[in-house]
Amino acid sequence: MTGPEIDRLIHFLAKLPGLGPRSARRAALHLLKRREGLLTPLAEALTAAGAAIGTCAVCGNLDTTDPCAICADPKRDPATICVVEEVADLWAVERSGAFKGHYHVLGGVLSALDGVGPEDLNIARLVRRAGAPEMKEVILATNATVEGQTTGHYISDRLADTKVQVTRLAHGVPVGGELDYLDDGTLTAALRARRSI
Amino acid sequence: MEWTDQGIVLLRRRHGETAAIVVLLTREHGRHLGLVRGGAGRRAGGVYQPGNLVGARWRARLAEHLGSYSCELTEAIAARFMDDALRLDALAACCALLDVALPEREAHTTLYDTTLDLLRGLAGPDWPAAYVRWECKCLAGLGFGLDLESCAATGETENLAYVSPRSGRAVGRTAGAPYADRLLRLPTFLADPAAGPPDAADVRDGLAITGHFLDGHVLAPHDRKMPAARTRFVDRWRRSATMPSR
User: Fold this and answer.
1) A112 vs B239: CB contact, 8 Å cut-off?
2) Does B21 touch chain A (CB under 8 A)?
3) Are residues A67 and A43 part of one domain?
C-alpha cells in the first residue's frame, strides 16, 4: 500500500510521545500533504537540532553551546545551584522567572525498579561543583515523590562535607488551590511545612 | 471478577504513556498487581506513592488476568515522611522488600496488619526497633521465623547474646563465646520484648540479623537481590552515629 519511505516515517513518528501507529499515520499524511509548508522545514529543523544541540558539560542542560547559555550568563548568580531531575524541570523553573542562579540536571532519580543507582545520575559532578569556594547554596528541586525525595536526601548526604547550604522546594498548597480539593498527601505536607506569619 | 479491599501501595510502574501497573499489598488478596488507567499522570501521582493506604477495587474478566484497579486514597502515609531521610528510607525499604519477597496473590493478613502498624508507627519515637521487629515478622510470615526464645545449645532463656547464622536460633552468651566471630550479635531488644529502647548499634545488629536471613533464605533461593532501597536504608543507618531525633 505504501512505500518503504512512508513506512519508515510512520515507524519513527509512532515512537514520539503521544503518538501511536494510527496517529503517526495521520501525522505522516498531514506532513506529506503540506510538503513545502511543514515537511521540509520540519526535516531541516530536525537536522539542524540534531547537529547543533548538545548536552552542557557543566549542568547537563540542552543547548547549542557548551557551556549552555544559562551557565555562560554573567548576570546569573553562580553561587546558587538548583538541582532538577530532567531538562523539562529546568525549563519549568525557568518559565517561572523566579530563579536567577545556575542549574544542575540529574538525568533521573534513584529507582531500584528501573535499575538507576547513584552512579547512573549526574551526582558526582554536582558534588564537584558544590565544592567550589564561591558556592553558597544548592536547592534540591526534585519531585515530591518518594523516589524524588529519596534522591534529594541522598544528594544532601553527599554534600554534607561541603560548606554549601542545602535547601529544598516547599511542598504544599498551590497558588489558587482550594483546600477542599487538595489531596490528603499535599495537605499533610502543607501542614508539616507550615510557617509563622 | 471483581473485589474490593484495602491495600498498601508497594510500587507503581509506568505502562505506556498514561497507564501504570500498580502493585498493592492487599489485606485479603495479598500482593496483587493491576493496571491503573491514567495511573502515570500527575493527578494519580499523589495516590500511588509507596506506603500509601488505598481503598482498591479490582476488576478483570478472568481471575488469571492482570485486571485493572481503581483506587481511592485512604491514608497518605508517604507524605508524612518526605522530610525525614531515615524514615523515608525505612518506608521505601519496607515496600521494596514486600514487593520482592512476597509471592503474588497469596493472602498474608497478619503481615498486612503488621506492615500497616509499622507504616503508621514510623512517626513514633520507637520506629527503629519497630522496623527491625517488622522484618523479623516478615521472615516469620514467609516461613523463616527466627527462634529467639531460648539458647539452641543449652536451652537457657536468659542471657541470650547471639544468633546462629545457619539455624536462626538464639545462642546464650556462654555457649556462644567460643564462636562469637561466626555468630550474629543478638541485640537485647529482640531477645527481650520488655527491654528498654535500643541504641543505634542494637538496631544495626538487628538489621544485620534480618538482612542475613532475608538475603539467604528468602531472596537468594529465587535468584533475587536485596532491594537497593533497603541497602540504602541500612547504609544510612550505619552512617548515623547516634539514634535519630525522635
Assistant:
1) no
2) no
3) no
Structural domains in chain A (count):
2
- For residue A184, the chain B residue with the least C-alpha distance is B76
Map chain B to HEC letters. CEEEEEEEEEEEEEECCCEEEEEEEECCCEEEEEEECCCCCHHHHCCCCCCCEEEEEEECCCCCCCCEEEEEEEECCHHHHCCCHHHHHHHHHHHHHHHHHCCECCCCHHHHHHHHHHHHHCCCCCHHHHHHHHHHHHHHHCCCCCECCCCCCCCCCCCEEEECCCCCEEEEHHHHHHHHHHCEECCHHHHCCCCCCCCHHHHHHHHHHHHHHHHHHHHHHHCCCCCHHHHHHHHHHHHCCCCCCC
Nearest CB partner across the interface for A112, out of B79, B83, B96: B96
Search chain B and give the residue with CA nearest A157. Answer: B236
Interface of A with B (CB under 8 A): 17-18, 110, 112-113, 117, 144-146, 149-150, 153-154, 156-157, 171, 183-189, 192-193
Domain that holds residue A111: 62-168
* pLDDT value at B241 more than 80: no
| pLDDT tens-digit map of A123-169 | 999 999 999 999 999 999 999 899 999 999 999 999 998 989 999 99
Same domain for A76 and A34:
no
| Binary contact (B73, A183; C-beta < 8 A) | yes
What is the domain-level CATH number for residue A110? 3.40.1360.10
Residue A43, domain CATH: 1.10.8.420
User: ipTM of this complex > 0.85?
Assistant: no
Q: pTM higher than 0.80 for the full model?
A: yes
CB B67 within 8 A of CB B57: no
State whether A9 and A38 are in the same domain: yes
User: Which of B22, B74, B82, B88 is most worth mutating to test chain A (most A CB atoms within 10 A of its CB)?
Assistant: B82
**Pairwise CB contact (< 8 Å): B46 & A183:** yes
Closest residue in chain B to residue A193, using alpha carbons only: B83
* pLDDT at residue B39 tops 80: yes
In a domain, A183, yes or no: no
